[in-house]
Amino acid sequence: MITTEVTLIELASLMKKAAGVSVDPQDLERSSDSPFGTLGLDSLGLLGIVGELENRYSQPLPPDAERCKTPREFLDLVNNTLKAGA
């Protein structure tokens, strides 16, 4: 069973690394139900984050991952997928 999950802090780091979008983790937490677009992240950036996570965890994420609209929706899907696959 997986004991770690992707956090908002990790997502903020991935947004910077994979998409070049700098977001303070506290701002991301406050905006976790806001659309990614309001945070400056587009669909290509989210696709880059999905790829980073798939490489990191050696596990494919569902196609829905790149269609998530908010950070909370994305993290819920990613973490549930990782837990199910562990």
Please give a quick description of this structure.
By secondary structure, the chain is an all-alpha fold. It has helices spanning 8-19, 25-30, 43-57, 71-85. 21% of the residues are buried.
In terms of structural class, how would the helical and strand content be classed? mainly alpha
Please tally the helical runs, counting DSSP H or I stretches of 4 or more residues. Answer: 4
Radius of gyration (CA) equals 12 Å
Strand content: under 5%
Number of strands: 0
Shape: globular
Q: What is the CA–CA distance across the termini?
A: 5 Å
pLDDT below 50 for ≥5 consecutive residues: which ranges?
none
Approximately how much helix is present in the residues? 55-70%
Mean pLDDT metric: 92
**Elements, N to C (H/E):** HHHH
Largest sheet: none
Notes on the protein architecture:
This protein has 4 helices and no strands. The radius of gyration is 12 Å and the shape is globular. Helix 1 (8-19) crosses helix 3. Helices cover 56% and strands 0% of the residues. With 86 residues, it is an all-alpha fold. It has helices at residues 8-19, 25-30, 43-57, 71-85.
Considering the chains and any ligands shown, give keywords for the structure.
86 residues; mainly alpha; 4 helices; 0% strand; globular
Present the secondary structure layout:
Layout: H1 8-19, H2 25-30, H3 43-57, H4 71-85
Helix pairs in contact: 1-3
